[in-house]
Design brief:
Shape: globular
Number of helices: 14
Structural class: mainly alpha
Helix content: over 70%
Order of helices and strands: HHHHHHHHHHHHHH
Strand content: under 5%
Oligomer: single chain
Distance between the termini: 13 Å
């Protein structure tokens, strides 16, 4: 009976994460469809995301009978996590605008391995041999992608994608090490801080006719909706399984960009991206199998 309940919970969690991934997959496409300049795009996307998260935080505060201050005021740890999340959001937008969407999504797919390596050097955690091996393979593939664009039009975007992955990995480590962190408040403060950084270079009123539609979809629907589903699902399944499902964003997101705006990934990105995805799938599968073996032993 316990095994059946565990299986149902895993299935439920997996579906929640997958729904979240499907919601966030158009993110890169919507960013590319916005016609205004990069900084203004980043300003509005971050501001709308921060405002939506603030409303969610206020609503939860009302449910818990908290004051407005208690509902919104971040702790010191949430500020730190927010800085990394803000860096993630800002670098992602600027990366998508300065390189092929597939390059950005493939590089970001390596975030779980980057998070694991940061945990080794910062939190002194021990990694299994499969993670070290996967890290070497993935980093060689990513270096090839970035190196292929070195000196070209994609170089800045590829480097920003790498910065996105590093900031995201740091965010996951801070949140993972501080269980008391409220992710909604952390993301909210990160979005607002990044918005302030964009203010000097932004032209908020200089939008094309359809830009507000794409921006509202991004900041008020896609990002917060995906966050709610992925967070709910990730609590029910092992991290390795959630990471495996999250890889679908690189595939679905690149496919949507190719389908809608006919942006075909380069040959190097296709080859190296396949290597990255295959390596991460194998790594996640082995992690899932080991986790299930341990659960069976505990149950026995």
């Amino acid at each position: 009976m316990g095994a059946a309940r565990s299986m149902i919970a895993d299935l439920h969690g997996a579906w929640l994460v997958l729904i979240g991934v499907m919601i966030i997959s158009p993110d890169a496409l919507l960013v590319r469809m916005i016609k205004t300049d990069d900084i203004t795009t980043a300003f509005w996307r971050l501001f709308l995301l921060g405002a939506t998260l603030m409303l969610i935080a206020l609503w939860r505060g009302m449910q818990r009978r908290q004051s407005i201050r208690d509902a919104l005021m971040p702790t010191r740890d949430e500020m730190l996590a927010g800085l990394f999340y803000g860096g993630t959001s800002a670098c992602f937008i600027l990366s998508i605008r300065n390189t092929d969407a597939a390059n950005t999504l493939v590089i970001i797919a390596a975030t779980p391995l980057l998070a694991a390596l940061i945990a080794v050097f910062v939190f002194k955690r021990v990694l299994p041999a499969r993670t070290w091996l996967a890290s070497v393979v993935v980093f060689v593939a990513l270096a090839t992608i970035v190196g292929a664009g070195f000196g070209g039009a994609n170089m800045l975007g590829d480097l920003l994608a790498l910065a996105t992955a590093i900031c995201m990995a740091c965010y996951f480590n801070v949140v993972g090490a501080r269980n008391h962190i409220d992710a909604v408040r952390a993301m909210m403060i990160g979005a607002f801080l990044s918005t302030l950084v964009m203010v000097p270079g932004a032209s908020p009123m200089m939008l094309e006719p359809l830009d507000p539609i794409w921006l509202i979809l991004l900041g008020c629907v896609v990002l917060p909706g995906a966050f709610l589903f992925i967070t709910a699902g990730a609590k029910k399944i092992p991290a390795a399984e959630a990471g495996l499902i999250m890889l679908n964003e690189a595939i679905f997101g690149s496919f949507l960009v190719w389908l809608i705006i006919d942006e075909v990934p380069g040959k190097t990105t296709l080859i190296c991206g396949t290597i990255v995805i295959a390596t991460l799938v194998a790594h996640s599968y082995l992690g899932m199998r080991e986790a299930r073996r341990k659960r069976v032993k505990v149950a026995a």
